Amino acid sequence: MTKTKLAIVYYSMTGTNFQLASWAKEAAEEAGAEVRMVKVQELASEDSVKANPAWLAQKEREKDVQEATSDDLVWADAIIFSSPTRFGNVTAQIKNFMDGQGGIWSQGQLVNKVVSAMSSAQNPHGGQEQTIQAIYTTMMHWGAIIVAPGYTDDSIYLAGGNPYGTSVTAGRDGMVEDVEAAVKHQAKRTVEIAGLIKAGQ
Ligand SMILES: Cc1cc2nc3c(=O)[nH]c(=O)nc-3n(C[C@H](O)[C@H](O)[C@H](O)COP(=O)(O)O)c2cc1C
Question: Are 81 and 24 in contact (CB under 8 A)?
């Protein structure tokens, strides 16, 4: 059987979701998956980015990452989304990418994709769970198969106990909770479930 294909689709302004996506990639590759880690298109003006040193630094960090396309989703057996929280919801950049998938959605090309999601917010209760649920709402419209972590591993408790998907508080000095193990567990679990579904087809 061919390798399970995983697309990790993220947006990151200051590096948090980039780091979550990078950990997920590392773990999925360890689990034997073929991985495309891709960023969604930026919508903000160049001037806005340049005015913010942290934002500009993230652009530099991810300059070699490919931009996500519909083909990445069609190609993938599984998809992990990672989005910062914006007023209790996903970023416009992630939403814009999702809204651009009407074509492949209408052709049924998103049906039975195995999906999972991660998020961050500045405050411990700033909307991380809501952001993940917003992603899952769209996934239901796609006919995707949502694989939430639940409480399937001790790492989830250490990361703050979000059963919907790994999330983190992005504080002034970086990530507050230690979520690396939870991200890696979530990525491996997503690949594992996608592999089981692929094998059964
Ligand atoms: C316009 C805007 C809205 C935001 N809304 C929220 C929010 O609702 N709750 C919160 O805790 N943090 C909020 N934040 C903070 C971001 O969620 C935080 O900077 C982000 O999770 C960091 O992820 P990144 O480093 O990958 O960009 C907001 C930030 C911006 C710029």
Answer: no
CA 186/CA 150 separation, integer angstroms:
9
Over residues 82-107, the mean pLDDT reads 98
Q: Name the pTM for this structure.
A: 0.98
| C-beta of residue 91 within 8 angstroms of C-beta of residue 139 | no
Question: Measuring from atom 11 of ligand 1, which residue has the nearest CA?
Answer: 126
Best of 122, 173, 177 for a ligand 1 pocket test (most atoms within 8 Å of beta carbon)? 122
Residue type, 2: T
The model's confidence at residue 1, banded by pLDDT at 50, 70 and 90, is confident
How far does the chain reach from its first CA to its final CA, in angstroms? 11
Backbone angles phi, psi at 170, to 5 degrees: -95, 90
